[in-house]
Amino acid sequence: MYYGAIKKTDIANGTGVRVTLFVSGCTHHCKGCFQPETWDFKYGSPYTKMTEQEILEALNHDYIHGLTLLGGEPFEPENQRVLVKLLRHVKGRFPQKDIWCYTGYTYEADLLGDSRARCEVTDEMLSMIDVLVDGEFLESEKNISLRFRGSMNQRIIDLPKTKQQKKIILLEI
Question: From CA 111, how far away is CA 119, in angstroms rounded?
Answer without folding.
Answer: 9
